[in-house]
Amino acid sequence: MKLNEIKKIGVLGGGVMGGGIGQVMATHAGYEVVIRDINDELVNQTRDNLFNGRWGIKRAVEIGKLEFDQGREAMERITVTKDLQALADCDLIIEAIPERLELKQEEFGKLDAVVKPEAIFTSNTSGFVIAEIAQNVSESRKALFAGMHFSNPVPTMKMCEVIYIPQTSQDTIDAVAGVAEKAGKVVSMCKDAPGTYGFLLNRIFAAARREADKIVDSGIASQEDIDKAMMTGRNWPSGFYGQRGGIGRQW
Ligand SMILES: NC(=O)c1ccc[n+]([C@@H]2O[C@H](COP(=O)([O-])OP(=O)(O)OC[C@H]3O[C@@H](n4cnc5c(N)ncnc54)[C@H](O)[C@@H]3O)[C@@H](O)[C@H]2O)c1
Fold this sequence. Notes:
Elements: E1 8-12, H1 16-27, E2 32-36, H2 40-52, H3 57-62, H4 68-77, E3 78-81, E4 92-95, H5 101-114, E5 120-123, H6 130-133, H7 139-142, E6 145-150, E7 159-164, H8 170-182, E8 186-191, H9 201-217, H10 223-233
Parallel strand pairs: 1-2, 1-4, 2-3, 4-5, 5-6, 7-8
Antiparallel strand pairs: 6-7
The protein binds nicotinamide-adenine-dinucleotide.
């Protein structure tokens, strides 16, 4: 599947990340989007967040990030459903369900049977090895499998790490990176690395956090002083210990 053949995007999981990903795919990239969650209550919640949420379409229009018509048309392009079959004819799937490896493996196994064979599969995992997430899909699908790691809140944060496994085809890498760019993101490429967790952003952040903990444990500086140094010296929006910006709905 090449970039110009991608017309319809399926998002598995309509939570913090899935909702945001679905939103930018419709607002910025102009794709038709189907978001799948597991029950009516969550489907309604996702729909409400897309429009009324802090980073949703209504506020984007209010603060002038989107024209009124762009917002309305984007909402019309998004379907939220609990029907897995609604993903069957999507060209690209972006998975954003909870960070549990077995759950992701199981759901990709189901998707492999339901979604058309030429569709690209990606995971927005925060850091699991992509080849492990892909273990239950067919060999032919592995050529169409990649990681697509966005940062929260997706409508405002520009990062997208694209992670490739040994089987990922160049066409797939190019298409996934192209979709991210159409959605307004800046792509960093990353090779899947068995035995690690966190790709670039989360792996480096975790290493810095370990060093910060060592400094606190050695009595060299307080947590507060470390946060102040990182936030004022590198313009980080949050440090390690105070408000944990970027996680969940915490901004
Ligand atoms: N929140 C973040 O800051 C952040 C940032 C980058 C990546 N991620 C990753 O994104 C993924 C999702 O995280 P989140 O914060 O959006 O979680 P979340 O809990 O807000 O959303 C997950 C959604 O998936 C739904 N779900 C569960 N099982 C499902 C299934 N079988 N089919 C369809 N939907 C299902 C849940 O009902 C929920 O709405 C995780 O892998 C996480 O590590 C999170």
